[in-house]
Design brief:
Blueprint (H helix, E strand, L loop, with lengths): L5 E4 L5 H12 L3 E5 L4 H15 L3 E4 L6 H15 L4 E4 L14 H29 L2 E6 L12 H20 L5 E8 L5 H14 L3 H12 L8 H12 L10 E4 L7
Parallel strand pairs: 1-2, 1-4, 2-3, 4-5, 5-6, 6-7
Helix pairs in contact: 1-8, 3-4, 4-5, 6-7
This protein binds nicotinamide-adenine-dinucleotide (NAD).
The site of nicotinamide-adenine-dinucleotide has 29 residues, from helix 1, helix 4 and helix 6.
Length: 260
């Protein structure tokens, strides 16, 4: 379905981004990986993905907290692959503290990476998509783009911002074949969430499996984590012709979290 198209997935050296990159590569897209990690591990990831799916895979280590690097990464994808057909704005970080104790530098970092990078990546990708006459902008928001939790002010503000930005982008592109939508995962067992499980276990003096269950049962009625593979499938669906007229939605994949 995506043969001959090029997809950027930000924050794809780990977790959800990697699951989505694998899914798009499986559909034939050339992939620009992005994210942090050990250079050798990233190179192994890049080479394995290319070999497994028979697509071109490149890596750009742009720091999503730097607008210039975000925009240069997008233009670099077009220079390398000839187009930017899909951008999945996925990179994200978390920091937990009450509003009154939230460190300013952590607020700035969460807003820069989780929200502003989505704006810069989108703005840089649109001209390439207009030239091609087709495009898919997929923003990875969160259940926290739709509802709040305590101690996550920056994350919740950023993700609500992504939901709003998704709607504006979709409206501005409504007369074109470029769509913009957001996916709102609930809990997905990735390094980002494992840190929160470990912190809960330490804080409550409980074992890790119990902390996992408690985290899930607080929010996610299905009692199951969403997987990166499932989110890859949802991203692929948003790239399909069936989704041509899905515009500006924020699709929860959250085990019922936001249905409550
Ligand atoms: P993760 O920690 O496994 O992966 C995050 C990725 O972003 C990594 O590749 C990391 O290197 C990259 N990254 C971090 N800072 C970066 C920067 N400054 N520049 C470039 N890359 C950077 O996290 P994840 O759980 O896979 O999260 C991915 C996205 O999904 C995030 O936007 C997160 O908010 C969102 N999300 C996660 C969950 C969950 O339960 N895990 C739920 C809802 C939404």
């Amino acid at each position: 379905m995506l043969k001959g198209k090029a997809a950027i997935v930000t924050g794809s050296t780990s977790g959800i981004g990697l699951g989505i990159a694998r899914s798009l590569a499986g559909a034939g897209a050339d992939i620009l990986l992005n994210g942090f990690g050990e250079p050798d591990a990233i190179e192994a990831l890049r080479a394995d993905l290319a070999a497994e799916f028979g697509v071109r895979v490149a890596y750009d280590g742009a720091d999503m907290s730097d607008p210039g690097q975000v925009r240069a990464m997008v233009d670099g994808c077009a220079a390398r692959f000839g187009s930017v057909d899909v951008i999945v704005n996925n990179a994200g970080i978390q920091h937990t503290a009450s509003v009154e104790e939230f460190p300013t530098d952590r607020w700035d970092a969460v807003i820069a990476i989780n929200l502003s990078a989505v704006f810069h990546g989108t703005a840089a990708a649109i001209p390439h998509m207009r030239r091609a006459g087709w495009g898919r902008i997929i923003n990875i928001a969160s259940a926290h783009g739709l509802v709040a939790s305590v101690n996550k002010s920056a994350y919740v503000a950023a993700k609500h911002g992504v939901v709003g930005l998704t709607k504006v982008t979709a409206l501005e592109l409504s007369g074109t074949d470029i769509t913009c939508n957001a996916i709102c995962p609930g809990w997905v067992l990735t390094p980002l969430v494992q840190k929160q499980i470990d912190a809960l276990a330490a804080r409550e003096g409980i074992a890790e499996p119990e902390a996992r269950l408690r985290l899930l049962s607080e929010k996610q009625p299905s009692g199951q984590f969403t997987t990166p593979e499932q989110l890859g499938g949802v991203a692929l669906f948003l790239c399909s012709p069936a989704a041509d007229n899905i515009r500006g939605v924020s699709l929860p994949v959250d085990g019922g979290w936001t249905a409550q």
